[in-house]
Amino acid sequence: MVPTPPSSTAAGAVNQSQQLASREQTQFKKVVRFYEQKQYKKGLTAAKEILKKAPNHGETLAMKGLILNSTGKKEEALENIRNGIKNNMQSHVCWHVYGLYQRSERKYDEAIKAYKRALQCEKDSLTILRDLSLLQIQMRDLEGYKDTRHQLFILKPGQRASWIGFAMSYHLLGDYDMAFSVLEEYRKTQQDKPTEKQYAIEHSEFLLYQNLVMRDGKQYDEALKHIQMYEKDILNKLVLQEIKYELYMLLNQYDRAETILRDLIERNAENKKYYLDLEKCLHMTTSYEKMKFYDDLIEKYPRADAPKQIRLQFLTGEPFSNAVGSYLQRGFQKGVPSLFQSVKFLYSSSEKVKIIDTLIQTYLKNIVTHGTFDSLSNGNNGVVDEDIEPATTLLWLQYYLAQHYDYLEDTNRALEFIDAAIHDTPTLVELYMFKAKIYKHAGDFQAAAVLMDEAQSLDTADRFVNCKCTKYLLRANHISVASEVAGKFTREGSSPGEYLKEMQCMWFELDSAKAYRRLKKYGEALKKCHEIERHFQEFIEDQFDFHSYCLRKMVLCAYVDMLNLEDHIKGHRFFRQAAQLAVEIYIRLYDHPLSENDSDKNENADNISASEMKKYKNKQRRQQAREQQEKQKQIEADRKKKESQRNKNKDDGEEEKIKEEELVGEKLERSEKPLDEAMRFLQPLEDFSQSDLETQYLGFEVYYRRLKCTLMLRCLKRMKKFNPNYPKFHSCLMKFLMLIQKHSWTDERLKVLIEEELKTLYKHGRSIEDMNADFIEKHSDSLAHRIEASKVMLLLNPSNNTKAIQFLTTLSPSSTDQNYTTCSGIYESLRMGDFGQCDTQIIENYRSECHKLWPLANVFLTVQSQPQQQQQETNSTSPPSPYSSSSVSILVLGCRSSGKSLLIKRLDELSNGLHQKNFDEFIHIQSTIGKTLTLFKWKRKMIELHELGGILAPIWKSSYSSSSVRDNKIIFDKLIYIIDTTQATASSFVIEHLENIILNFKRNILIILNKYMEDNSMTQNELNELFDLKTLVSTQTQVNNHIKLKNRVSNSTNSSVSTTDGDINTECENITQTGGQSRIEVMEINMNEKNVMSMENGNDESPIEHYCQVSCQLSSIVKSTGSATFTLNDSMCTCILNGPSELLQRQQLESSKNQLHIDVQYQTRQGSLTFYLDKLIEQWLETIVQSTIIKQRYPRSQINLILYEEQNLAGEATLLSCICNTLCLTMLDANLPMKYAFASIPVVLHPTKGLLLLPNTKDELTSKTYFVIVFETTLNDVLALHAIGQFDIKQLNDAIELAKPVAKKLFQFYRNELEKRVSV
């Protein structure tokens, strides 16, 4: 709203100093107009012109402040507004502006006070009254709203909004007669209006609202007469018919209601409410009447599902069997994925479950045997092709059977049927989704996440599947991966987390909060809870603009519904769950405050050594520092972006939103008053979720810690009122009784009040021990009640918790609620110490007993902390594959284009009986982008080959590493790693892959050397020297090393290598073999395809950037085979590689051997001080290249390397190292076949400081002795050395040892840069 300029009358009443000349008055009106048009610059300019002549003019100062507020200058704006009020206390403009400012700050109470003060100065101002009414309805000040609307009605009786708002105020107060009278008087004034379309719509909405007022006032006769009288004027015929039949039913005119309901069913045969209301109209009581009624409706509407589902509710026995059988058969035939959900309500009856189980088992047997639902006495005789059910019928029957047994908690049978369905149709997304659901219900959240991710990969364009995958990943505590998966459907270029927050995606935030809580990251969990709370606050704020809009557009019924919704918006389940989670966390933080060292605490601290713990803490601190740095950069970038956008839009008048205080997880979890923060969430829970028992329990726990006896008593009374058998009511009551026994009362009235109220909660005269014993005896078959009884036992005897824990951990098959959720909660409570210090053997015994009941549950799996225990792991104790209990799951890894897809293709062909296929025939294979799953049978085993594309190399470790899965659960039975022997680039990175795999994967590993014995492949000696297989295998103790030639599978039309059936059988037998002791086996086969290198990050402690200034840009020159620009401190070089290409004739004559010809050229920049080193550098680098590149791969070829010195402010050592590293990066960028990568480190011998690693320019120029040391990747040998100056052998050896760790970090830098290139 825009403040109204002062009238001449008002101007005469104020101080003469506040009056403006006519020219300035005109200028002031322009200021108001500029503000209204959002031309803020012009408005400020005009205000300054006025203030030059009247610097103390209050209204101009106020308007200037209002404009400044719109441009985001809050403090300056408030100062100007306050100065304006001080200079003119009697101006309604100043007070109105102050109210507008407070409203923009969401301080509605202060704004209302300012508006009322403005009305004292100008009581008939329509603008102020209108603004005041909006704030009053926003704050639900209904009495004040009625008075304000009455004033507006008196001032503007000719406006429709005055009538409607006045009537609305009485309606909301419950004075329905007055509201109807006002509306009726207004309706009479509209009788002569023209019948335009817009008026007809608005008039129709007005009549519906008028009828709503009558129905709310329970004037049903008058409402029915009203709706009949104006039936022709109401355009929404569906709402009209529904109102009429509801009124007929309320007035007991069932025959008329029946007629309307039958018409509505004709219009929408799937609305169950119509059928149920029609039942009431016909007064049907017996099942026979209902069955006949619904049979007629089903015959009339054969395609409607609603009457068929309603009929199943009351039918029993044979009629139910026939009805549900026909319903299920139709669902199987049509392939309805939601069939089980449609009949899930029937599973509350055990009798009906037995009937359904018998039916579907019969259907399965008959379809498998005869191909039909019905059995035949003469086999298939008499069955025509039309009677045979299609193959999809069996598929959907198996799908339903899996859902059926999963609901009955028969996990094994559910997996059996879903595996059979997947085997028949391995590309159906729904099957993988439900298999994930089975594992989720079994407690195996890791396997469930893997399967849901598999389903998502089958249909990446389905948003629903993507959301499901995200939820399952969050449930498995993979928060970052879940964010990446959700990011596939977020705005490009934005952070997924920020986008989902902006879109108010509360299910994601809620599941993230739960995941953070399970990970004991309480600060992040609270941050998500506060974000959800802010969303609901935004919902409440967003209704402000609708108060005037709805009255103007005459959508009155919808407006009343919106007001009712907003009044109870915080009763929504999202807010309730988030608030309860926040209160639980704050209670825990109050009971167990975080110490300074808790941020570095590792959950498995007891299972790792002190050195590993130190490394872990250092790594965690560096990671937090990097995250904080990245976060600051992002915040700064966002700030600059918003500032530029704000400056750009100043003239457009886009007002800034209120800046919310940034939520910091660490600050939230270290709150000084956690109980006060808990009350922030508890208060709306008690207001809007009062009937929720968990709310009352949390309220009691908070008030118990705050010693609020009357509030605790209120929570106890509500718990007993809603459910007197609620388990937690007992423990809370016992805690309260123990508290008041120890409490010394100072207020006698309070003591009497509590004693009187306690009489309604329990029988007096009994001890707490006796009541707890009776409670145990009464609820002996309930595990939830046993938990609360154990808490009371612990309260009675805190020093001796053994009896309580033994009672708690006793599992009994007679318990009615002994389920996974309850038992896992007990196990976690024991581990967290909620029942005091507990013997680890007791916890382990309880875990073992639970593991027998739920063998797939992650939380109950054994934690193998010792290497010896891991090596003794056998098939009988190892967790099953997440895909099938009877299948072999194999993970296939390898660099890009190494032959993974071709191997899987060959094996799939073999499994289909193609033994005589010509394996020399070329097959076109596309590179795998992401993941693939291939299933086939081999010797009665189901083989599942899971291939991860080479482009996913950075996340390979998350698939095979036991540390990535909770409790060391190993997902895959075997791992295959494929190496292309003809393109073995960067062999050191391949070795590092194998080292990581051997250390982290505790099952069988098969290393395949592809394209072995091809013309351009490496020899046996070269392979052993290059990959150092014996050393690799020896890193795993008690592992057998089998290096033998198994078979060769060729994909090259030029190859003369053939394959026999026996070789293939041997290979498949080797691949499918599982069990026994962990071993590593090397297989050599032949599948010729181009190889692209991919590498994995190491786990070094700190990057090279911590030691020196280093940067790199790969592929910086477009028209080249490879190129790189590398910077080391104050030196920078660029290298270009061209080739391999055919040798020129002259060069062939000069070359005595048919080998690779390497030409290295080094060009200094103009004015360089190292020009004399040109030839030396070229010879030195050529020697290094000759020793690292695999020359046999390119006979009679040439490679040209050109190096440019871009900058050198340092000495010769740094420059030579920079040149050498640039050369290696260029060769890697060009994918040249190399035995190993190399890195150069400069070391100087300073006259006073001694040996200096990576010296700065000053120290290097001061030193007369330096070393340039070149390491190969394994760091076992020095590849090359260049030294100048006087030194001894000891100093040289010390320099080499000093440079080794930094060389390792430089190799890590190489990997990071190459992974960036591959990911792009």
TrEMBL record:
Residues 1-21, 596-669, 865-884 are annotated as: Disordered. One of its GO terms (cellular component) is NatA complex. Residues 7-21 have a biased composition (Polar residues). Pfam families: Arf (PF00025), NatA_aux_su (PF12569), RNase_PH (PF01138). Keywords: GTP-binding, Nucleotide-binding, Repeat, TPR repeat. InterPro entries: ExoRNase_PH_dom1, ExoRNase_PH_dom2_sf, NatA_aux_su, P-loop_NTPase, PNPase/RNase_PH_dom_sf, Ribosomal_Su5_D2-typ_SF, Small_GTPase_ARF/SAR, TPR-like_helical_dom_sf. The keyword Cell inner membrane does not apply. The keyword Repeat applies. TPR repeats lie at residues 92-125. GO terms for molecular function: GTP binding; GTPase activity. It comes from the Eukaryota. Residues 624-669 have a biased composition (Basic and acidic residues). Residues 1110-1233 form the Exoribonuclease phosphorolytic domain. PANTHER family: N(ALPHA)-ACETYLTRANSFERASE 15_16, ISOFORM A, N-TERMINAL ACETYLTRANSFERASE-RELATED. This is Exoribonuclease phosphorolytic domain-containing protein. It comes from Didymodactylos carnosus.
